[in-house]
Amino acid sequence: MTIQTEQEYLAAYRPEHYPRPLFSVDVAIFTLHDGVLKILLVQRAEHPFVNHWALPGGYVDLSADADIAATARRKLLAKTGVNAPLLEQVETVGNATRDPRGWSVTTLYMALIPYAPTTEFMESVVDARWWALDELENLALAFDHRELVELARARLKNKTAYTVLPLHVLQQPFSLSQLQQAFELLLGSELEKKSFRRRILNADLLQEVGIGIPAGGKGRPAALYVPAPGSEQHLFVRVFGESGVE
Amino acid sequence: MTIQTEQEYLAAYRPEHYPRPLFSVDVAIFTLHDGVLKILLVQRAEHPFVNHWALPGGYVDLSADADIAATARRKLLAKTGVNAPLLEQVETVGNATRDPRGWSVTTLYMALIPYAPTTEFMESVVDARWWALDELENLALAFDHRELVELARARLKNKTAYTVLPLHVLQQPFSLSQLQQAFELLLGSELEKKSFRRRILNADLLQEVGIGIPAGGKGRPAALYVPAPGSEQHLFVRVFGESGVE
DNA sequence: TCAATAGTGTCTGTCAGACACTATGTT
DNA sequence: AACATAGTGTCTGACAGACACTATTGA
């Protein structure tokens, strides 16, 4: 072969000549409901793993998706109707055995959404439903999705210890108690009330928007808050709970 | 089409029928030398971006690599001769524009190795060399590798604030001053001596193995250490330096 | 008045920052 | 002795944990 310019090389390039892995994007969508952490799974209609429950996900649409985050957003929108949630890349898993069709790579994203806005929409999506994480124990998930769920769950827990991730699972406005409950559920352990309030309030992350009793609540009305602009990327220099980040 | 079993489906499956992105693995290999942080780049021999400097990386060998970490390890071994270093997945970047050949995805790994053991080996690798990170400013890197380098650099910095990552760039045994210098170079800022020593020693991460003057050193001989078993995954509950983790 | 929830006062312990100090080697 | 580097003593401030306490609502 003679020396080529890059243009000549590209003109002659035939991607299909090179064997390469399957590539997909999967999304672990979490929410809080009835006091438990839930994840959205879809029931597969096709081989492989027909009828098994799986994370929403699929292949990149080469003509429609600008990047892999767009693929993840598209999958999320299709299943939940939610458009601009917290969406974050977790990890990429690729090996020869995870998909019976051959060498396969998936990039796992995790999304957090408040429960209610999606509920009505969800009714019509017959092949999708929320599962409490505990319910998954006896459920056979497709592919290696059980491990993917665990990866996302672990990330969620870790980041809850030093960020304000849990803000994203709440409907606004919310009380500090509701926020604390969200932290506790994502963290999987209880927090001391005073410490929690001190930490959040001192960090100047919230805007008070009034006082009220959140739907169905009892007792003294609480101050209600919305996140202050830019607060979502706040990082604490000290970690919540004893220790044990990833 | 009639209803199939999964076996029939798999037998009839032709992966090449589905358009999908290119997939590669790239590795940002860091070390410390002459008091600066360096990264290993290779000069491309082929299109696209011939002669440009790039991160070591390439395609998955579907028959030889068990998973994507194996691909990363293989690339690292080929360029440095180092076998079992710290190797950690950083992030996956995929979009329509990063590779002129089309939609392309790469999973970025980062590796840390001590300088010396690789030096002799490196002499013979004519297409690879260490670059101080500052030198990269005026260098045109292939693809989006400049951004990938920045991603890896940022991860390195963040994790240095709450782990003992810098252990992996030192030859053993090392003094606390050397360890502190490693932390400072990866962190990009200076640390207070007493705080540093207290933090490291109280965490019980090191085994003292004697006293000596590290090669070429002056002044009072220092206690020398090696990492205690399992110390590598230690996590501090409080972050180093003012704040500013990712 | 009681149950239920919101919110506070305050002590303690841990640990990073600052910085002045002492210790031990070489030339 | 002068230097260079290793290593310490000790005060301070930030902040999480613990826990008892007070406040405000509805039934």
Automatic annotation (TrEMBL), chains A, B:
<protein>
    <submittedName>
        <fullName>NUDIX domain-containing protein</fullName>
    </submittedName>
</protein>
<dbReference type="InterPro" id="IPR054105">
    <property type="entry name" value="WHD_NrtR"/>
</dbReference>
<feature type="domain" description="Nudix hydrolase">
    <location>
        <begin position="22"/>
        <end position="153"/>
    </location>
</feature>
<dbReference type="InterPro" id="IPR036390">
    <property type="entry name" value="WH_DNA-bd_sf"/>
</dbReference>
<dbReference type="Pfam" id="PF00293">
    <property type="entry name" value="NUDIX"/>
</dbReference>
<dbReference type="Pfam" id="PF21906">
    <property type="entry name" value="WHD_NrtR"/>
</dbReference>
<dbReference type="InterPro" id="IPR000086">
    <property type="entry name" value="NUDIX_hydrolase_dom"/>
</dbReference>
<dbReference type="InterPro" id="IPR036388">
    <property type="entry name" value="WH-like_DNA-bd_sf"/>
</dbReference>
<dbReference type="GO" id="GO:0003824">
    <property type="term" value="F:catalytic activity"/>
</dbReference>
<dbReference type="InterPro" id="IPR015797">
    <property type="entry name" value="NUDIX_hydrolase-like_dom_sf"/>
</dbReference>
